[in-house]
Amino acid sequence: MAMFNKKAVTGFVLFGVCLLAGYSAFGDTNESNQNAVVFKLGSFDRSSFEFASDSPKQPVNFIVGQSNPAKDWYATQPAVLSSASGQTRTDVASAPRAIHFSIDSRPEDRYRLRVSLLIEAASVPALRIDINGRRGMLYLHPKLDYSNGDQGDSFYPAYSHAETTFEFPAGYLKHGENSIAFQAVEQADQAVPDASLTYDAIELDRVTGVGTPNASSALVVPTIFFRQEGGSIKEQVDAFIQSAKPFKAGAEVELAVNGKTYHQNVQGSQDFGEEKVSFLVPEFTKDTHAQLTWKSVGRPQHSDQTISPQKKWTIFIVPHIHVDVGYSDYQPKVAAIQSRDIDEALDMIDKNPSFRYSLDGAWDLEQFLKTHTAADQARAIKAVQEQKLYVPAQYANLLTGFPTSETLIRSLYPSANFSREHGSPFNYANITDVPSYSWSYASVLAAAGIHYLAGGSNNYRAPVLLQGRLNENSPMWWEGPDGNKVLLWYSRIYQQMQMLFGLPPVLDAGRDTLPLFLQMYEHPGYVADETIMYGTQVENTDLFPQQSELAQKWNETYAYPHLKYSGFHDALQSIQQQFGNNIPSIRGDGGPYWEDGIASDAYYAGMERWNEGRAPTAEKFATLTSIVNPRTRADKASLDRMWRNMVLMDEHTWDSYNSTSDPTSMEAVKQLAVKDQYAVNAQALADFITQNTMASLTSAIPVGAGKVIIFNSLNWKRSGLVSIDIDKKTELVDTTTDQKVPFKILQSGPNFDHIQFVATDIPAVGYKVYKMQPSTSPAPSTATQQNLTMENSYYRVTLDPSTGAVKSIYDKQLNHELVNESSPYRFGQYLYVTGGDKASNTVLQYSHVYPKPALEVHPAEGGSLVSVAQTPYGWVARMRSHSVNTPAITSEIRLFDRTKKIEFVEDVEKKDVDTKEGVYFAFPFAMGHPKFEYEIQNGVVNPAKDMYPGAGHEWFSVQHWIALQEGGVSVGLLPLDAGLATFGDINRGQWPDHFGDRPGSVFSYIMNNYWDTNYRAGQGGHFKFHYVLTSASSTNASELSRLGWEEITPLEADIVTTQDKALSSPEGEDHGASPSNSVAGAGSPCVLDPKEDSFLNVDDPNVLFETWKPAEDGNGTILRFLDIGGDQRTVTVHVPLLHIEEAWQSNAVEKDGEKLSLSGDHDFSFVIHPHEIASIRIVGSDACKAN
Questions:
Q1: Which top CATH class is 597-774+1060-1070?
Q2: Which tens digit of pLDDT belongs to each residue from 1116-1161?
Q3: Residue 475, preceding bond cis, omega within 30 degrees?
Q4: In angstroms, how far apart are the furthest CA atoms of the chain?
Q5: Computed from CA positions of residues 475, 479, 480, 483, in that sequence, does the dihedral angle turn out positive or negative?
Q6: Domain spanning 1097-1186: which CATH class is it, in words?
Q7: pLDDT tens digits for 843-888?
Q8: Which of 186, 185, 187, 196 has its CA nearest to residue 84?
Q9: pLDDT at position 299, please?
Q10: How far is Cα 978 from Cα 654, in angstroms, rounded to an integer?
Q11: CATH topology for 314-405+421-587?
């Protein structure tokens, strides 16, 4: 996404402190002087917020005391071009802008003009000043800025601040009316696109006391520019000479360095200001003495200075165009543009063999290969093999805090498969636009054999680099929760060539901006003399051919910086070699910022959360089907489509560029429909594959019609709620105990009951058989009460019907109240937050000058108790309430008899509004200063210590659980549908740079529409949110993770009907008959237990069996495991249905490593490390012949 337009703001003036000081021109100043302010426009806060944001339509004449800065002084002034020929072209916008002011008496003493400016475009113009007809030029010496006073700081890699202060004699002014005019002047041989200056503040003071405004001074500055001249390398050294008196045109300036002198002449032709002259000086060493000599007021002047050379930089240009799958245009058009870019890049490589081009994802190549001829496909493949065209590991740029680890891994499969098929490199990843990343992403990449990651970070609504400066500390080893690491290069935005040189590129623009860009790396910790220019154009645009000529044209002029085309891997590898062992390491989570926008689409986001919980079930069952019956094979094409849809759902592009400004436009509506359809498709595929494969598995289980088979895809025995339809007057029997199973009727039709029951002790990666039989007993009834207290052996729960929430939860085992009863919110209470509409404010954008929003929290109210009922599994309470724009909230609280947990099921009916909103469920715990932790894909984050510099601390992206611990009490909260949460308070636009000390409240952040692009403008309809609460004396991360996977991975049910099998099950099957006497499905060599069985056993409960899939190369199957225990140990896996012949430790994209030893015909063992993602390939003989 690219968002560059400054937001219009009027009528606001904020006062701040300027922390950067430019050098003072025109004499020394005495800080003790008491100065009188003549006028002041704006505040010295490195922001143009208080000025008009549009362009003037008539000459600017600002009258002090009458004009309004918000309307009459314009923030940005385009520069006029002052070429070598002296020609200047102006229009109204670039014409001098005058400030008119009065002096009531004869001017005395001297005056000081202070001008603070921002560099927000690919140029550093000079500032021409006219004081009552006297004209002079001032040159700027900007420093990189990270304050984000203007939103351009989020995007522009050379965004800088410059301040100039100079004094002039009182004689420049007069009694009565005066004027000072300003004009930006770009001194270049060709026009620089968008050359301009942006005003921060201007102030004129009368200065009293001792001072010499006529003094002349100089500054000698070695530059980054080196030229080849006369067979040697010479460095350009600039000299800036300042004076309040005119220079004589053609006057000579002499620079002496190392016993040699160099001469230049000044241009003259101005009444005051600065003259700039440049010298080419042979190489010199650090701390070399230099003397500059010139004449001022007819007298020789000298300045002795110590100078040091700059580095001889090599800049690796990585030509690259970011891909948004949508956003700038319809998704199909984006596919066409990105495909065409590959054609154009290949043409440019043919014309300029040194040119290189990097795709932003394997998605780009996929679109190309689907739509091009065999010859063009071969041409592209050859370029990839020869490393002229680069394909990264990732399919697209994902919001990495949202997906599961398996989905993150699957986002690498298309590129890995291409590499496997064509022998091309698979050695780096990049992530563009997305500002910060889940800590687990480092582990996922390392598990796939990727050790280089380039991040082109967009800091809009995400101050990761503005606060953390990781771009200046790149490269760094980023160590994941498992201890594995990737070399991370954080880049301040992408499309850097376009931002620094313009498009098409202009050499003079680079002359202005490269010195600013390289400031990032001019510190002792950056030991290399190479760096990366990340990307060349904004997303989804046709490729400009001129970029392929930039390096050659630049290098013809400059020896250094030397520009060289490259890919990310080659550049990072070269920089790594220069750093050697001096690369720093970081650990921690990025507090992913942009995941907050997902909450603008809560219905489909919730669907995707459940998809990612259920998809591994579909895949495991599909793989098992081929093992149970070798006549079948897994439907890999459907599985691939399922994962591809989930990856695209998790990709960072959600809607169009105008999604909030024009939400009913065809562009916004159609793009959003395509996006949400990914979740719908994935859900449909997961459901189809699961039902299809359960039917195939059932064929191998010797049972007949009237049986209900409950499947468990997780690798531990578990119980859980199951809902099915049964015929009326039917009862359910557990075939392992021959006991009737109590159930609750949720809904009835003419001939059926939709029931809910607890399926108990379902074997790990296995099944259990229940029997339906006619019942002579009356349908089960539900006992109800109107008591506001529910109680079991674990908890006593007190309801608060007026709020639709819970007043108290008392843990009877810990003898402790869990709820903060003095909180303004009840436990599980719905909160609707208004007040974010007034633009601009800090809940909408990160800024140090925008005001904080006046948010108003509207808790649910007007509630009532619907029922308190006793069910077969425990008590269930239902309450109703409402809130602003939320006509109905139905809250169901479930208290389980045999499990220490409480479930909260929230049904929300909400209106679709376009006003800004934040929506939460509050969970205030009785803890004053707890330790917070939350689960990510392969680890646990303590946000007080496990965040990398610049990480987000206002909201957090949670996988399955959040834990708070204090004083011998630990609570675990599982937000199943909505992974976004805030800790301590709601999102108030604070943008904290550290976690700090927070009270023990968790707010499930279920909805917002605070973005102004890309995400939904509003949402309404019916939503459902599930939460699970548990508690203990201390936090047990592995138990919470198992509970989380149980809750998000439903038990699956298959009902055997008369259509399923040709023969009925023999009499007595359920009473101990031999399985051999029962009939399995046709063609299946497997005969399984008719009551319960496991297909696979893992001997370690602290290992998650994540998935089981067909191998991509067809050689066996791949099993993926994830450690949730945190210890190194040996794990043994038993596969009773397979005679295992060979097993290998593989990486996450199925490249084999160490061969594993086998123990027996059915077992293999491997060592797993803390938080490790382990992939195993097994090859075995036909399914059940081992039996």
A1: mainly beta
A2: 999 999 999 999 999 999 999 999 999 999 999 999 999 999 998 9
A3: yes
A4: 121
A5: positive
A6: mainly beta
A7: 999 999 999 999 999 999 999 999 999 999 999 999 999 999 999 9
A8: 187
A9: 83
A10: 17
A11: 7-stranded beta/alpha barrel (3.20.110)
